[in-house]
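Training component of the fellowship. As part of building independent skills, the fellow (R.M.) carried out the full modelling exercise for a liganded target. The chosen ligand was iron/sulfur cluster. The inputs are recorded below so that the supervisory panel can assess the work.
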Amino acid sequence: MASGDAIATTCPYCGVGCGVLVSPLEGGGFSVRGDPAHPANQGRLCSKGAALADTLGLDGRLLRPIVHGVETDWDDALDAVADGFRAAVARHGPDAVALYVSGQLLTEDYYVANKLAKGALGTANIDTNSRLCMASAVAAYKRAFGADTVPCDYEDLEQADLVVLVGSNLAWCHPVLYQRLRRAREQRPGLKVVVIDPRRTPTCDLADLHLAIAPGADGWLFAGLLSYLRREDALDWAFLEAHVEGFAAAFAAARAAGEGLPELAQRCGLAPDDLGAFFRWFARTERVVTLWSQGINQSSSGSDKGNAIINCHLATGRIGRPGMGPFSITGQPNAMGGREVGGLANTLAAHMDYTAENVARVERFWGLPGLPAAPGLKAVDLFRAIGEGRVKAVWIMATNPMVSLPDAGAMREALSRCELVVVSDSQRDTDTTALAHVLLPAATWGEKSGTVTNSERRISRQRAFLAPPGEARPDWWILTQVARRLGHAAAFPYASPADVFREHARLSAFENDGARDFDIGGLAGLGDAEYEAMPPLAWPAPSGRHAPPRLFADGRYYTPSGKARMVATAPRAPVHAPDDAYPLVLNTGRVRDQWHTMTRTARAPRLNAHLPEPTLQLHPEDGRRLGIGNGQLAVVASRWGEAVGRVDLTPTQRPGAAFAPIHWSGAFGSRLAVGAAVNPVVDPVSGEPEFKHTPVRIAPLRAAWHGFVLARQRLDLRDRLHWNEIAGAGYWRYELADDTLPASWGAAARALLGDGEWLELEDRGAGRYRGALIRDGRLEGCVFVAPTHQLPPRNWLADLFGQAQLDDADRASLLAGRPTAGRKDGGAIVCSCFGVGRNTLVDAIRAQGLATVEAVGAALKAGTNCGSCIPELRGLLGGTPAQS
Ligand code: SF4
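Fellow's submitted model of the complex:
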């Protein structure tokens, strides 16, 4: 739907699902702003959403199909896929083929992929990368409610009197929700926020109480809370009797987990008073929302932890009413859409599980007999099956599992043995496309049309505003063409995403008299124009009967008895405990300004400026003990693999724990993908990997020299012990370390950047070199080398690339390795919208006596656009220490 000149669509990143308005600019390009009419964000955007227009370039795009390394046309490529899958099924049966898809797909893509796998190929082996982020929450909801029903919406967060954020760095991972919560707190200071997280994240800026829980102890905490609620007579017995089953066993299991507050506090690594305060607040507050995400889900007991949270809400009857409920939010933009169509290997379609009745129903609806009768392989098991030769052909869509899966080295090994690897992607070179036999060019955000569902079950349109470049095509189209080649033209008649959506809506309502939660039958009759204009709306949206005003308001659930279930959970420790060989616990997660494996966000220099390298956060005590200094490169190694990061010593980490971001891959440097070190243990119910708890050891990276290069042109510096490349505004930045010294640094620098006017300073004895190449008065590139990681800051040097002519002072500063008088090093970027660095902020706060975020904004503009940096600004103002 157009709004003026603008196209209304949705942000392709996180599960908040913000509406954006995209407008063409005179002279080319687009502007992106938050859509004030979209209920999820009401005009707000975070730093990633605000930079979307910077990510639209064609650099690195896959533009034509490629079969066995040779560019070809669509007919040839589609024949290769169809023939390969047909042959694998004929020789080895349907379970020898698989699809691995993504929460980046639109629902229409997802629907056709699911139908192709189950209906046309006859395999249940279709799983999604959403398995890695929220499968445990799905399992918990299904056990408790009999269906994968998220019972809350974003307004509940604003209406609550107590919001408990568990394992969620909302400020960085779901920034617009964080902004909504912060605004609600400003308007209603009585709203309390508790953050339960081993790390003191920027989200703690909002916390009345931060419980820095010991890694993996959440199950005990919520079992302890349930026991406390019972002891303190804070239960809703009328609700329990009328609407809940299994509560006696759940209370007994919680009691068995330990009741005494001091013991519980000790197990959780918390002060008894803090734990007691949280329990009291929870017991005495009626309107409580407990929001959780990957910190709970990515655990070998993630499903049980989810149920332990839900148990506390059921025991107090705090569900189905405004301002309360157990609320799992998703990482990806369309994880919920994947759940709706059956994109998880253990679900069939339209929120139906694998029962004989459901299988027969879907066969009837699709007109495709021979659907699989039982669930397929979940992500980690699927790639193991590929490695063991049980799965012979796999089609990977819109995801980069060689970076994102745990034990990535073993997964790479597995995929390299697979007989047929098909990858649909918009990008030519990823860690996964490198292993593909067939590459299919997929359309991407801005070029695709369809729908996505956000964390509050709100279905929104994504609308195209660009033609796909080259031969790129939408995924639903590619899948449809393959299905037709497999002989199923009649069952795959789609000519548009609207055709697919209408069928998806009809299936949701098919033989559904209210027994299934997911019903959007009211949308099945949308015409093309109505589909095009469809406003954001939350499901259910049934046809011919009113959608309930609020799910579970009537106390009826989707279990056979109609009652919710409290699940008796026994807390258990992570599978692998730290030991003498691997004494630290590694936790992985997201950073503020990057998304997934950076194929899109790393195109925006302003997003790269926030954290130009992958960091390895450690408590300063651990740094001292291990002999690792701040800013040093270090290797984090586990029994499964290793990765390299730049050490950030910060008291925001618990002693004994480390944190590394998930985003970096082989496309950006050597050994940067932390997934290589993550243990592949999964939750036995959900199959979700234990990303939050891998025993590791950490040691300094030993190298003969360390250095960095800033260059106007892109260079190839891969052949080093350590290299890391990132795009800046008008330059490329390379961080390097190696164990081989060149014969001459001057010659090496010239070989790299070329001849011309060189400014150089070398101290051979000390192993230091500085060189800068000037062409036509402009800085062309510079090389800085030292025997240790202690090198000049990069930000002020990077600023010199923006100057048309370097003056004498600039030239002197290049050799001095520091800014000369009148020029300052702004420091690491905090506000990416306006490029304001940490040093600039600290100086202004001190010099001008700035005391509030508003005053900082008035002085420097920082924090006045998207607001994503506000928690860090508060940290600099004296609250929570800002994370670097
Ligand atoms: Fe996109 Fe940010 Fe909104 Fe998430 S919070 S949908 S990343 S703009």
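The panel noted the following from the submitted structure. The longest strand covers residues 778-786. Residues 829-878 form a domain with the Arc Repressor Mutant, subunit A fold (CATH 1.10.10.1100).
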